[in-house]
TrEMBL record:
This is Exo-alpha-sialidase. It comes from Paenibacillus hodogayensis. It comes from the Bacteria. Residues 1-22 are annotated as: Disordered. InterPro entries: Sialidase_sf.
Amino acid sequence: MNGNLTRRAWNSGGTDGWTGETGSLAEELHIDRIAPGDREAQISWRTNGKGEGDSRACLLEVNLQAAGREPIVRRFDADEDHKSVTISGLDNGIDYRVHLTRLSGDGSAATVVGPARLFRCGLVPGTIVNYIHPEDRTYEFSGRSTASPSIVKLPDGRLVVSHDVFWMEAGQNLSMVFRSDDDGRTWRFVSYLYPCFWGKLFVHRERLYMLATSTEYGDLLIGCSEDGGDTWGAPTILMKGGTRETGGPHKAPMPVIVHRNRIWTSIDCGAWKAGGHRTGMLSAPEDADLLDAASWTTTPFLPYDPQWPGAISGGSLPNLLEGNAVVAPDGRLAVIPRYQTIGGTPNYGRTIVLYADAERPDAPLVFGKTIDFHGNMSKFTVHYDERSGKYWSLVSRVTGTNAGQRNVLALVRSADMERWEVVRDILNYEHNGWPENDRQVGFQYVDWIVDGDDLLFVSRTALNGAHNFHDANYTTFHRIPSFRD
């Protein structure tokens, strides 16, 4: 694209630990994962390669932030077999503070005290991949919220999940990578990626890639890991970035597909503050060196046109973003984007299909049609499933007057990519006495894959005291068994 093989360092969380200007992440004792569930919390950490091989003990201390409660203390040998602990018997709905203390060999004195982390226990659907309390400042240089989940299955069967760390107007430049060796039953932290935001994991020819930006509207990057996400090489800059004010590359963890011997994915350009986004496609020959910027081609970016047939009328800032690359029933390459319809008529339930020219990867996109679609107001992932012969998605279904509602996650399908039906709600937190409403709860930005008969997905989940429905505190993993039935 820019013709230059430009690289910048991607620091990852392997044996060398975190390096750079990132505060407490460089500490000798650093808590890298918290998973607070129903009356218990799993806490894991890493030592950044310091103090290895000694026999000093490690004290894990949990302090309840409520009057009249005694601290809970756990002590054990700090060897390689003790990188995590699960503490049970906690109370839901209150905030805990936890830190690690390394003691001298006889346990009489503290030699290192790690930075404190916050968490709150509660009922959580699925399996917790990671959690960040909204007042936890550990990653404040990037944000305080889990966002942009992505999932992939490696050739050896292991599952890898990533999410970035978001907060409005923060740095938005850190992503975290986790892996499961047991089909998603348990998860562990494997690496940090910095600078890395809006990332999509994908596997091509048995290599794991990350396609991301350096920050919100920053440089568009691609990097590769040869060891399942533990360590990453320096990424290539595919497109120079801009700012929130001027606009630049915009994306989300959107599908990366192969069609007519090319890899395709959608990419946007613009910014909310710059008046919205324009839609494009990014592609490369499937046998090319994906870390060579010259391998990649982008289409011109197509602006939204309110005069398109079927487009909404009015709206606060109608535009298209976060598109899905998908092959239509007639073989054409299509883009199905999120459609920002808030404040318009109608304000929900519609999206637009654009088409690309698969034979001319530098040709502009063209308007195709307007279709009815559940969940157009939040990022969604569409895949075609050959076994069922249908297109599938998981969407935030709106059931009331709030067009931005995200507390009902529904499985939808279509035989023709145009007429969509709701199969059933997968997560519904508007009923059954759940105490938080649709302004506080969200199951959103879902990324998913098919695994045999099952559908596996990860959710940006806001629950149990999140800052709001948008600013999630969990990344959760879920399995829908026999989803085609």
